[in-house]
Every structure is written in structure tokens, then in C-alpha cells.
From TrEMBL, chains A, B:
Residues 23-62 bind DNA. Keywords: Cytoplasm, DNA-binding, NAD, Repressor, Transcription, Transcription regulation. It comes from Microbispora maris. This is Redox-sensing transcriptional repressor Rex. The keyword Thylakoid does not apply. Its main location: cytoplasm. It holds the Pfam family Put_DNA-bind_N.
Length: 232, 232
DNA sequence: TTGTGTGAACAACTTCACAGCT
DNA sequence: AGCTGTGAAGTTGTTCACACAA
């Protein structure tokens, strides 16, 4: 029996806001390091690359943590955002696929710092298994399920070739994982309740190419773009 | 004097649509390889992981390229999307920063295939300069401006440490580049007219952590989440 | 009959502008 | 006097549902 609070406030934070909280957090951490105690929405927005109205609206979804006429207390806001994002606990992450990308991720510093601990590096290639990377020994993907269960892995990063990604995905989901970060250039099929986030170099480049092409044309429309003759 | 067509159709394609076109393109290429000649919006949407209404609306922004009662011609649609995205020409890309991530990007296959040609690999570390990676010799970042100009680079990928990113960014913009793909965990300051796309592992993990935390709570709200005592 | 293309309804997100707290 | 927090307005994106072409 699941407890439910009927008249509960709609504490659902908009996705767009959640996606920006890490940005604010990073900017705030920089300020904290420099010893700033208090910051206005204007200044924080500038540092995070958004406008101040948006920032205030975003923060208002978390609660009323600012002081009118003054601004936000940097340390306190760091704490509140961290808590909201779930960074006050730490998360065991496994990286599957230890090619160049997997290595880059394993060695990425900002990783361990923010509540994410690499609890496993796995690869299917026997030549890679046994290598020591970022203080961990690479294990064989045969161990995937056991690594996930024994070390309480709740987030899996897929950095395998495209061909292996869906299979890895299926296995980690079967092992109970519901949060996946996918670097392989495929659309993963997952059941409801599983979150997949995707990072795709090729897509980003194509989006840039689209805009670059527009600029090159010297304006949004060129008459020549749609010659009547070209139809099927 | 810039020619403008006053009564021009509003051919501005929504950003959300542009961001999905590469997905459709990838799905279509897969179908083309398997010899599929024609596809319905339903099937293509399934392969791309969106719903069919959205797909039809997206494609309708490009033109009327389907056949009612039949579907879309795979080859023709590949051509039209490619053209819209600007993939029928090829783009010279330079990668700055040749650590693990830079190497991963350089070796990434789907790169060269889709109109993107790596025209330069640059790094500030003399130990790396001279290395041969993916058929290219790594050059020193001193050569950045000359590489961009001589090889017609129009897209720069920044894969440097965070501390170097803004400086590299400023230099490539001064050299005329207006499209940047940034992997460094910083918000780049750029003038109007410059497009920056950002790929940030740490942000993606934090977003996953947020949702993972929600799931763990067994529901959207827990009364205990907001004890009255905890204020500043 | 089938499946596209699209107006219209809906939902999410952003920006404005100002009341109200400090 | 200054800056947050937020209704209201505006914008963008999504989904529905069906007319219409093949």
C-alpha cells in the first residue's frame, strides 16, 4: 500500500528548470570559491548564461530562498539546489565500454566531486579487461549484473559501440537500473519508468551545420532555394 | 545592400524540429541500408522514438514530401532532410584539445560519413603535438588561426580543460568561426551571431540523479521532505 | 481505404511588469 | 531604494482529430 497525500502541493519542478539547476549550481560553486557571500538574480543569471526573470522563476519552484532587496545567500542556495537534485547523497555509477570515450569519462574530474562515484568500469574486450584506469580495474561485461547488484549501481553510462548498446541497455534494466546515460548513436528502447538521457556528437554537429548554413545564405530565405522544377 | 523578399513564406523551422531531424535521418539511413523503399509516419516515428503526429508535423515544415495513403519515399526524404540540415555540402571541423575525449571524437566513425571532415587536431601540450591520430598529425594551438583560415574550418569542437575553453573560444571567434561545440564544463561567453552547443556529462548525470531520487521516494511528494524546522 | 498534412485545442515554457517584502 | 517572487501575457511546442489526396 502506497501512501499518497491527496491535497499535496504540486511540487513537480518543470523539466526545463531541472535542466538548468546544474548550471546555477556550477556558477554558485565558482562564487563560493571566490568568497562571494550573496548574489543577486541579475549576477547569477549572467554567470549561468540565462536571463534574470527565468532564473528567479526557476528558483521560485524550489521555494522562497532569496531575500528581497538583497539577493540569495550563496552557500544556502548551493545546499538547497544540491538537495533538490539529489546530490547530498552519492550515486554509484558504472561505465560500460572503455574505449577512448569511456576513458575520458572515467578520468573526468568533476565526476567524483559532485556525488557521483565510479563503481565499475566494464568492457567486452579481453585485451582491455584488467587495465587500471582512474584507479579502477576494468572488469568483463559478463560481470555486469553482479557489479550492479553488489555495488548498488543506480546509474549506468553506456559508452559502447552502437551495435552493443541496446543489449547492454536491456541487461542493466533487467538488473534493476532505471537511469541510463547513453553515448551510443542509437535510440534505445526502454520500458516506462526508465530514464534515458542521450549525448550524441553527430546530432549536435548536424544542428550546428543547419544554423551555419542559414548564416552563409545571408538571410533566412533565398529565392533560389525552391526552384519549381525539383519535385520528386 | 541585402536582398529581402517581403512577402516571403515563414520558412523558419522550429528549433525543436531541427533538433529531431538528425534522428529521423539516422532512422531513414538504417532503413535505406535494409532496402526499405517506403515508410509510414507511424513506422518512422517508432524507429526514431517519437510519436507519429509529431513526426508528420516536423516533416510538414520542410515541405510536402509524403504521399497520402502510402507514406514517404525513404531515399527522397533522406535527400530532403540532408539538404535542409546542410549535409549535402561538407564541413571542415577542427578539434581543439586532444586528451581522451578529443581522441574519442577524432576516432568517432559517424563523423566523416555525414559531411563532417576533421580538418585539424590541435593541442597546447608539446608532448601530444606531432602524434598521429585518425590519420592526422596533431598541431600546436599556436597554429589555431592559421589552420582555421587555410583549411576553411567553420565548426570548432572545444575538448580542452575548462580553464582553457574561453580563451580558445575567443580566438576561434576572432578568426571568424561562428559555430562551436563545447565539451568543457563552462558557460562560454560569445557575441551575438555565434552558435554554441554544449555537451556536459556532469549536467546530464545531475538530471538523472534528480529523477532517480524522485523514484526512490515512492511518489512525487513525501511529507518529510519539508520539515518546518529547516530554514536557513 | 489508407495515411498524410494541418487547423485548432492544449500544454509547456518564457518574458513582462509590478506588488510587496526587507 | 532595491530586488525577489509571481500573476498575467506572450511564445513555442505538442497532441488531437479529421479533411482530403492517392
Amino acid at each position: 500500500m502506497i501512501r499518497r497525500i491527496p491535497q499535496a502541493r504540486d511540487r513537480g519542478i518543470p523539466d526545463a528548470t531541472v535542466a538548468r539547476l546544474p548550471l546555477y549550481l556550477r556558477a554558485l560553486n565558482g562564487m563560493a570559491e571566490r568568497g562571494t557571500a550573496t548574489v543577486s538574480s541579475e549576477d547569477l543569471a549572467l554567470a549561468a548564461g540565462v536571463n534574470s526573470a527565468k532564473l528567479r522563476k526557476d528558483l521560485s519552484h524550489l521555494g522562497s530562498y532569496g531575500t528581497r532587496g538583497v539577493g540569495y545567500d550563496v552557500q544556502y542556495l548551493i545546499y538547497q539546489i544540491s538537495r533538490e537534485l539529489g546530490l547530498t547523497q552519492d550515486w554509484a555509477v558504472a561505465i560500460v565500454g572503455v574505449g577512448n570515450l569511456g576513458r575520458a569519462l572515467a578520468n573526468y574530474g568533476g565526476f567524483a566531486s559532485r556525488g557521483f562515484r565510479i563503481a565499475g568500469l566494464l568492457d567486452a574486450d579481453p585485451h582491455v579487461v584488467g587495465d587500471r584506469i582512474a584507479g579502477l580495474v576494468v572488469e568483463h561485461t559478463d560481470e555486469l549484473e553482479s557489479v550492479i547488484r553488489k555495488r548498488g549501481v543506480s546509474i549506468v553510462v553506456i559508452a559502447t559501440p552502437a551495435t552493443a548498446a541496446q543489449q547492454v541497455c536491456d541487461r542493466v534494466i533487467a538488473a534493476g537500473v532505471t537511469s541510463i546515460l547513453n553515448f551510443a548513436p542509437v535510440v534505445l528502447a526502454v520500458p516506462d519508468g526508465v530514464d534515458v538521457r542521450k549525448v550524441d556528437l553527430s546530432i549536435e554537429l548536424q544542428i550546428l551545420a543547419f544554423h551555419e548554413q542559414r548564416k552563409a545564405n545571408g538571410g533566412p530565405i533565398m529565392a533560389e532555394e525552391w526552384p519549381d522544377g525539383v519535385v520528386m
